[in-house]
Amino acid sequence: MPKQGFFIIALFFSSIHLLAQNTGGNATYNFLTLPYSSKASSLGGMNISAMGNDLGLAMFNPSLLDSSMEGNLHLSIRPYYANIQQYDFSGANYWAKKKWVIGWGVHYMDYGVIKMTDAAGNEMGNFRPNDYMAQVSLSTYYIKNVQLGATLKWIQSKYGMYSSNAVAIDVALRYNSSNELNQASILLSNLGGQLKSYTNKEDLPFNLIAGWSIKLEKAPIQFSLTAQRISVWNNSYYDINFANQEGNKAPSSMQNLFNHLIIGAEIFMGSQVDLNFGYNFIRRFDLNVQNQQNWFNGLSAGLGLQLSRTKIQYGNAFFQRNLYHHFSVFYSLKNK
């Protein structure tokens, strides 16, 4: 089978399964939609087209895997309230004979220790709920400037005596211009289904995403535009009863359009330091509350510091008055 055969088969089955996907937002395993690295958090929560050998972004979009990531390791930690922790660990290797880049990783959510009680409130011990996803990715060039990528995922959730699991694939394509100043990607994410459910089978959080990034030729700045959930027009949650009670209006056609978009910008201060900024339109729309100070909802920022073999990244995002932090460390096993 040609080296592109795997991707053609994956894309074929993805296209068939796409017709059966529920894009209305009622999906399970929504932890898969969280950013896997601090760079993604700082760029608005999602970016599939940024130029640079960032293994954290490649964990989400397999077509970003590049041979320059050979021997790279990535670890991210994102703490939430109530002792909830998110962990991401990934690595990449290059198979020179086949010209394949192979990535692997784990996306893990730990919800801490929770007391288990019966219907009357009697304590019956503790349990530790968690979600995790293990993945293997493969990327290769199809033709000049066009990279194909695919990811196979095993997804597991455990909440005490209840558990479920699923299998999913991602399929992606990336185009990089010859002058390396433009890059575009398209990603079909979380195509698959549950093997075991809690009660009735639920849909996975399918997402059709497109992204474009451009570097300025004479300035150290890169801009990105990401469009998510393209397959559904109304991308926001709107409860008409709650909205009428609170005096909120339904999103306009223009608001629906912008609710698909995420804007990102990177400023490179020399070869060692980069500053990152993002704005997520739907995050601001969903979090804004009337008659309250909404502060910087939708905004995010971060920075990266490149050392000899190590890169340290930090990202944050605003949610009402709360600021969530995200930390990432990259290490190269090879001296490049």
Quick recap:
This protein is mainly β. Helices cover 13% and strands 47% of the residues.
Protein described:
This protein is mainly beta. It has one domain (5-332): Porin (Beta Barrel). It contains six helices and 16 strands. The strands form two sheets. A 14-stranded antiparallel barrel has the order 1-2-3-6-7-8-9-10-11-12-13-14-15-16. Strands 4-5 form a two-stranded antiparallel sheet. A hairpin with a 2-residue loop joins strand 6 and strand 7. Residues 15-24 have low confidence and may be disordered.
Order of strands across the biggest sheet?
A: 1-2-3-6-7-8-9-10-11-12-13-14-15-16
Q: How is the biggest beta sheet arranged?
A: 14 strands, antiparallel, barrel
H/I helix tally:
6
Shape: globular
What CATH calls the topology is Porin
Query: Helices and strands: which structural class?
Result: mainly beta
Q: Any idea what the CATH architecture is?
A: Beta Barrel
* Rg measurement, Å: 20 Å
Q: How many separate domains make up the residues?
A: 1
Relative strand content? over 45%
Number of strands: 16
Keywords, separated by commas or semicolons:
336 residues; mainly beta; Porin; 14-stranded antiparallel β-barrel; two-stranded antiparallel ribbon; 6 helices; 13% helix
